Amino acid sequence: MGWQSMVAATMVNHVCATKQATLKKKSAIPQESARAGLEDDSQADNMVTDSGTDMTTRSGLSIEAGGMVSGKELLTCVCGWSKVTSVRGLRIHQGKMRCLSEGVQGPHIEQYFEQNCLSQSAEVQRQVTCHSPQDINTFDTREANLSTEGVEDEGGVDRSKAKGKQMGREKGIGQRSKVKWPGTGDKMAWRSINDDLKGMLEGLKGTAESKLNRLGKVIYDYGMARFGVVQRNVKCQDVVKSRRQVEIEKLVKESRLLRKKWKKGNEAEREGIELLQEELRSKLVKLRRAEAMRKRRKKKERARIEFFRDPFRFVKSLFSKEKSGNLKVGKRELEEHFKSVYTEKERSSDLDLPADMPPLGDIEWKMDVNPPRWSEVQEVVKAAKAGSAPGPNGVPYRSYKSAPDVLKFLWKLMAIVWKKGIIPKEWHRAGGVLIPKEKDSVAIDQFRPISLLNVEGKIFFSVVARRLATYLKRNNLIDTSVQKAGIAGFSGCIEHNSMIWHQIQTARAEKKDLHVVFLDLANAFGSVPHALLWKAFNFFRVPEEISRLVKAYFEDIQFCFSVGECVTSWQRLEIGIMAGCTISLLAFTMAMEVIIRASKWVVGGERLHDGTRLPPVRAFMDDMTTLTTTVPCTRRLLGKLNDNLRLARMKVKPSKSRSVSIVKGKLIQERFMMEGEVIPSILEKPIKSLGRWYTAALNDKEQVEGLRTEMVEAINRIDKSFLPGKLKLWCLQFGLLPRLRWPLTVYDIPISEVERLERVMSKAIRTWLGVPRCLSSVAWCGRGMLELPLTSLVEEFKCAKVGREMQLLGSKDGLVKATAPVTRSGRKWNAREATQAARRALEHRDVVGQVQNGRAGLGLGDSWKAFGKATSPEKRHMVTGFIREQEEEARRAKAAGQSKQGQWMRWESVEKRRITWRELWGLDTGRIKFLLGATYDVLPTPQNLAQWVGEDPSCKLCAGSGTLKHILSACKVSLSQGHYTWRHNQVLRSLAGALDKKRLEVNNMPVVGCSRVITFVREGQHSGETAQCLKTAGKWANARDWKLLVDVGSKLQIPECILVTTLRPDVVLYSESKRIVYFIELTVPFEDEVDGAYERKRLKYTDLVAEVRERGWQAYIRPVEVGTRGFVAKSATRLLSEFGIRGRVLRTVLKELSDVAERSSQWLWFRRAEAVWGRE
């Protein structure tokens, strides 16, 4: 049966199952329950929704959704038949019409009915029975049998197909296959999904907790029944060898036999054998060459398929190290490992805070403890990624992002469990997999566990985490100058890195003392005790309602992992947190803040010249760094941290920690100890902290060299990826540049070194584009007449440095803002000065206000936001945008000094061409090469070849100067042979087609009287149908009998009713009723001659227009130009807009004109040496 009938049956079956389970549930209500007086415990939490008011009430009566009390509903069969009937009526229809005998997958409605009744009864039993954690993973064999039993016999469907349809349900927890949900852009499909799920969910009965536990299963079963699941890739069997491969093997065997016979034969036999071997060798060479070419084609095809399937994953695979392996551990051993890691031995013992803990100040801002608001839930779901992996129930964020009624149903249930302090069982469960850390991983410690929680619980606790973070931030309970993790609005890694590096460099430059210790905690996320989290909640005075919710959540967290076909039993998380949990990270931050707050008071940090005291500890989650000025202070602080960590049942790993000791500006070897072990110095081994390397040299020279090596290796990987050049450019733009941006931001790299790196990158770009080495980088980095979607490495470097300056100068941390270090970027360019200049320019623009550019009316133009009213992220974006404008001005100045490649600077009357990635992917390599070469005049013309290699500079046809302009528009032989006429007619057909389409549309419009009087339109009123007609029709609006004549294919003659003349304009557009005529003359000149062509054609038809006007006609001449290299003149844009072609249609027509002219010129270029060739 199809998904429609299954969905409809499910809506009815939930009601039937509830009625069957009512008697059982009455006996299951405990006497001490607050709802013991009710007949049905489910009615206490049952939400009754009125479709007209969308109000939710509580009542002892149940109102069925969609009139389901009467037992009838609008049901739809797989054959398309639909009727308001009962399930029995649908069954009768299917039996008479035999709809289920056509091979449609899916169970019969009786089986689906029985299945849902069983699942509902099982749910009632689970409410009164105490089950062990392993019971959650037990698969109901009756459900599996119902899914496929009788399908082949009664419905005529293959049992294997029906079984595949139920694959998602048969998989264990954490192994559910992904549903093939439609894309986010498919609004109609999601509207249908939203309506179907809304009706199904409103029919659910039971407590709010039971509804939430069943919510994911209902959504997943619906999606699986309607859309199916993603099939796992099955390894293909051994491919049958081709005839060529068989022939190669045969020849190799024959060659070996001949070699053996040659060794045993005499001289006469050897000569014959050698001849045979030579013949075999030549055959093998040909066959192996052909086989190698076939394999290379296969690799190219496979690479393109993988790229277009997921470009970002393909790029990531190019740059990331290979990680593979199979865990060779049994299920029992794996479960014992997880049990030993996540079981807390000291759970029963109490955990106390240090007695010398500094007291907490007064709480001024109270935390909101009301149930989640609808706006909060919407914001959380909107911020979530639609592609995030789902949890054990298989429901992704997308099902809530695109189905608002389903999300609202979830929100209403969230409000109920919030008030009761209940966390549904499904929110406690997590499934996961083990991902290898390195190549050929086999041991448990070589795999990283990844846990996936159900998104419903993540949405709920995201609201809790946001409120808790706001509470901590507004009351200044977390010192953001020390700990920057978990609190929004801070660039923690950049600020900590910048301040730590600045203190080290200042100590070296000013000959001061400084001792820095980078501490690494041993399995910090997995070893933090839950008791420490509750102590932190109590210390920061988190309201009891919030603490109760989080504690109830952590009390029963269980997870399981799937390894191949094996699934572990449920494991209880008694210690540590899960990285995928939305509340755990903030709770961990609070626990670490308690430890740091209890330790940092024993010493003071470095004092600056102005008296500012810097903090002695800087932390980001579990990464802690101590910065003190004396050895005793360092040891005292380390000892206090060690004592408090030991009190919190956590410990430091000294072997992975590092120390930096600077005395009088010089790096020395000073020993510090923790846990009885010596902390190594960076003189022995460098360390990477928060994305930055610290080496014994205490400078970034090694990192600059490493960056150069990494970039060269990355370019080589892209080059060997079997992709065409245009796809390699995408890999460079979206794969390599983002990887380089972080080191360019963090490390002190001079701009001269970045320019050298860009030259290496430019060499690869020229190779992939297929252009000569002389082409300037302005061609692909600039935003001139031809704009490619590529950016400059130097520009990205400057924007990264300026962005870092803006982050430090605009930091919400007062210490960072007051002592922001100067970003070092070499002597040629200073980031601090560039930032200040950009800020002054933007502030000056605020004073001047918006000015008009061009001939637009007052107030027209691009709007912009005042710099003084912008937020910090907006200011950073505006400043980096100003830096990009400066870089573009520098490129334009460079292009102005290039006599040949900078010719486009003189094209004032043509429109710019912007090539998007989609358009670039659609162009073939030869066309990209021609487009760039023709635009910047670097094609191998005779004139250019004479400069490059000393060839003859004359034209091959007419012996004239062999320049690009001559070949494309000025060769006499090409003109006499009709080459240019052929190109002109190609462009004219495209232009005439667009005008004729608009002409037919206008002629079919209703006649509307057009008054010359402009009526006043009041506020809130519309201009009316007449104005809309004029806007749509443009110049066509005055008539409905327009006729179009085009000088293509046959000799055009101006109608005698207009004028008798020998002139032949390209297009004549006229209306006899209104006596209006337009003469349109198309020219395809070289882009430098667009203005001259316009004036020349206008002057040619001036007398004709005057004669026509004397005869009482309204005559107009409209010269139109389209450049030989595909750049459309502004006259074409004005003409099309004048006749009502605007918006997307206008852009489509202009692009078509550009493509036709460019392809025609490319064909002329390919056949530039042929005097005579056939015309179309």
From TrEMBL:
Where do Basic and acidic residues bias regions lie?
156-173
Q: Where is this region: Disordered?
A: 27-46, 148-185
The record, for Pfam families, names: RVT_1
Q: Which InterPro entries match?
A: DNA/RNA_pol_sf, RT_dom
Top-level lineage group: Eukaryota
Return the SUPFAM superfamilies for the record: DNA/RNA polymerases
UniProt domain Reverse transcriptase: residue ranges: 416-679
UniProt xrefs under PANTHER family: REVERSE TRANSCRIPTASES
Q: What is this protein called?
A: Reverse transcriptase domain-containing protein
Q: Which organism is it from?
A: Astyanax mexicanus
